[in-house]
Specification:
single chain, alpha/beta, Rossmann fold, Dihydrodipicolinate Reductase, domain 2, 7-stranded parallel sheet, 15 strands, 38% helix
Length: 336
């Protein structure tokens, strides 16, 4: 199976390529604006380079490079597009696409979104109109690429989202904290509009969906909340303040802390009045966990779980339990 990783020369893309090259039965190529396979998401004239590949994996910076047109082309020509973007706006746009072709677009592949969405789908299995809370705990004091730093700025300066009464509604970028039972113990987690809001709703048809984030160490939650408030009140200074924030993160995370890894803890709680389930996942290295989440989807594809034509979330494309099982086979980290 021939795979192309767009952005495979970047920070997270490098981890993805490394994880995929450990799998049997796949052939991995790297795509980007400077090759080896030249493809620029912003330039449709380069998109013909996608055609020879059965699976295209987008690990590029989607904050500044929209994948919509390239993804549509891949699907229309029978390919499978796996989208890693953690940008809520990109996620919602892709979920709304209606490409005409025999291929499939799978949105939200990785660890969060990805394993987090699968975890919520398992927690809500068999429930009607479930109420779901999904949480992630990680440390921003760890390595990242420039695209991830741009994503953090985007989270602070744009409204968040929740699902209430079956409909997605806008919220503040950061809203009321609540305790969540992470694998390491109960932690306060702030409400944020992660892309899992739309993904979980699509995968489960839940009555309510709230996504939350806990930072480690916990004191950083205060700074995160203050940063979002400053962005909201900055008015005409919002743009320069945002760029200052982003470049500060680049200096810290893409520079000084580039080789520092972060533990990632996931939790999903689903209840429907009659029952309540809690599913957890603990990943020692979040950067490699993102790559292993992609590899888990590729394992499902390689082993015959080809999604039907159209647009899917990762659990609706491959099965939530199958994804988590494939992830556990790579990492030893199983849901509990």
């Amino acid at each position: 199976m021939k795979l192309l990783v767009i952005g495979g020369g970047g920070y997270y893309g490098g981890f993805v390529v490394e994880a995929l090259r450990r799998l049997a039965g796949v052939e991995v190529a790297i795509g980007g604006r400077s090759g080896p396979v030249v493809v620029d998401l912003a330039d449709p004239g380069t998109h013909a380079a996608l055609d020879p590949y059965a699976v295209v994996i987008d690990a590029a910076d989607t904050v500044t490079h929209a994948p919509d047109r390239a993804a549509r082309r891949a699907v229309e020509r029978g390919g499978i597009w796996l989208e890693l973007s953690a940008d809520r706006g990109v996620t919602e746009r892709l979920l709304a696409l209606d490409p005409d072709g025999p291929g499939a677009l799978v949105v939200g592949v990785g660890i969060f979104p990805g394993m987090s969405t699968a975890l919520a789908a398992v927690a809500a299995e068999g429930m009607q109109r479930a109420h779901i809370e999904s949480g992630v705990r990680l440390s921003p004091l760890s390595g990242a690429g420039r695209g991830n730093c741009a994503l953090m700025r985007r989270m602070l300066e744009t409204p968040g989202a929740r699902v209430l009464d079956g409909r997605q509604v806008e919220t503040a970028a950061v809203f009321g904290a609540a305790p969540l039972p992470f694998p390491s113990g109960e932690r306060a987690a702030a409400g944020v509009g992660l892309p899992d809001v739309a993904l979980i709703h699509r995968a489960t048809d839940a009555e309510t969906v709230t996504t939350r984030m806990a930072l480690a160490p916990g004191i950083l939650r205060l700074g995160f909340t203050i940063g979002a408030a400053l962005m909201r009140w900055a008015g005409p200074l919002r743009r320069p303040l945002g760029w200052l924030s982003e470049w500060s993160l680049i200096a810290l995370r893409a520079g000084l802390l580039r080789r520092v890894s972060s533990r990632v803890e996931l939790v999903a709680i689903a209840e429907d009045g009659a029952q309540r389930r809690v599913e957890r996942l603990d990943v020692a290295d979040g950067q490699r966990g993102t790559a292993d989440g992609v590899a888990a989807a590729v394992i499902c594809l390689r082993d015959g779980a080809r999604p039907a034509p159209g647009v899917h979330t990762a659990p609706t494309a491959f099965g939530a339990r199958a994804l988590l099982d494939a992830f556990a086979s790579l990492t030893g980290s199983g849901a509990n």
